[in-house]
Amino acid sequence: MMDLLALTLAGHTPDKSHGENATLHWQWLEEGVLELSPQSGYRQAVVLSAGIHGNETAPIELLNRLVIEIFTGVRPLAVRLLVVLGNPPAMRADKRYLASDMNRMFGGRYSQFSPSDETARAQRLEQVICNFFAGERATRFHLDLHTAIRESYLPRFGILPCQPEPYSADMLALLDAAELDAMVIHRAPGGTFSHFSSEQAHAASCTLELGKARPFGHNDLQQFAGINRALQALVSALPLPPRQQEPMRVFRVEQSLIKRSEAFKLYLSDDTANFTALPQGTLLCEQPGESYRVKHENEWILFPNPNVAVGLRAGMMLTEVPRSTLFSE
Length: 329
Ligand SMILES: [Zn+2]
Prior knowledge:
Transforms N(2)-succinylglutamate into succinate and glutamate. This protein is of the alpha/beta class.
């Protein structure tokens, strides 16, 4: 049995760093990072990560339960699997991060931040991802699981990294089965974990926002039933559960609102929900020498936050696009 979450929260390492049973081989690579390989063949190599933001508890608990079920044999392992709990010190402190947001640091961007445990961890996680996928000929997946701080008109959504290749139809089928409400297509590179694994390891990757988080032990995991069923099917290479709700909506980022000055003003209330629709012409933000008004007939705001550090993104403006956009960009 391997209780990855309990070990990680306690700051413990397991007595042995690796082991095996009749069906799998496991290896504790470092704090909060566990690799599981089936004894039989596999067709997919899958990274599942959570806790890059330490207080986003529900997906961490979800992944931990999946690991326990794999170890106890409740769920057969049919993929090569890397489970990553991203930021253990922040998880222990129930904080999003301690020094700086790790999900801005990947792709070497950690060097632009003051050195901290988090810059060191981001650098090591990059290495872990590269090692895991090195020479791997199976299909490569990475899902980075998050929960949002604010309310959202579309509560469950995925954010696809900007990449030159079309998005993976297999991954989108998985996300359909996970009952996501929407997908958002990035159109510029970024420092997210999922962008890194797309760009550097050529994995089909996605950041998933799965609802609102509560402290450990207080999550209504029922809220996460869709993603849970999809991940269970994924790790056991079983047919995906059929989607029950209406089709996913697809958006793309038209504009990132970058805070370039301490004088940056965002004209939205602090509790503005994700996917709030804003009419054409609305003045959204201003800073010296620059302002942004809604350009298209309909635009939606995602992650509005004027309190980010100068140089970082204070929000994203989206337009809705046909699903075929996913395969034609
Ligand atoms: Zn997050």
